Amino acid sequence: MIDEEELIRSAQQGDLEAFNRLVLQYQDLVYNQAVRMLGEAESAADATQDAFITAHRSLASYRGGSFRAWLLRIVSNLCYDELRRRKRRPTTPLEPQDDDGEEVESPAWIADPAELPEDHLVRADLGRAIQRCLDELPDDFRQVVVLVDIQGLDYTEAAQATGKPLGTVKSRLARARFRLRDCLIGFWELLPDEFRLEKENRS
Question: What's this model's pTM, rounded to 2 decimal places?
Fold first, then answer.
């Protein structure tokens, strides 16, 4: 089995198959970063595609370290560009839509085929609540909380992905978590038991 470093070296030497294997390995991670930052499936898919195009063109600039953090930095920068464009041309936020323009009640990225229907509905509602609270965060806060708490990067990788000092990442993450907690309390009936109990104890 070829390891990741060997795939990266081969891709840097022009091996398209090696690069495609890296795409298959990381496409879900990159898409999840984009959809959580942008809150909209179609834009996230576009950002994901653009991220891998940019990564392929920029492979020579990769100098080691966490490859997934390098990819996530690329897609995060593309998401920032899209968020800035939206602020210049504000639009009405929409729920994720399918190819026919119909609202998707349960987006694929929060679906679990093993769930019972009633559990799936609760999970879908919770997923929308989480995304709504993420959307209310400043862009920089949203980026770090998605990287660490959703994508599972450690602080060092998150610092590499954001291009910010470790202390900045930790500070933004702490503040983002505080804001998310307060926002999600508004959806307390959807939260796991331990969060509902915390709210009741605080009341």
Answer: 0.73
- pLDDT in tens for each of the 203 residues of the chain? 568 999 999 999 999 999 999 999 999 999 999 999 999 899 999 999 999 999 999 999 998 889 999 999 999 999 999 999 988 875 544 444 555 555 544 444 444 455 555 555 555 666 788 888 899 999 999 999 999 998 999 999 999 999 999 999 999 999 999 998 888 887 665 555 544 444 445 44
Question: Sign (positive/negative) of CA torsion 143, 145, 149, 154?
Answer: positive
Q: Which residue ranges make up each domain of the chain?
A: 1-94, 113-203
Tell me which of 3.30.1340.30, 3.10.20.340, 1.10.10.10, 3.40.50.1370 is the CATH number of domain 113-203. Answer: 1.10.10.10
* Measured CA distances, 135 to 37, 62, 129, 174 (Å): 7, 31, 10, 17
Tell me the two tokens of residue 36.
């959580």
CATH code for the part of the protein at 1-94: 1.10.1740.10
Q: Which helix (H) or strand (E) holds 72?
A: helix 67-88
Neighbour-count burial of 191, counting CB atoms closer than 10 A to its CB (0-12 exposed, 13-18 middle, 19+ buried): middle
Task: Check: CB of residue 151 under 8 Å from CB of residue 133.
Answer: no
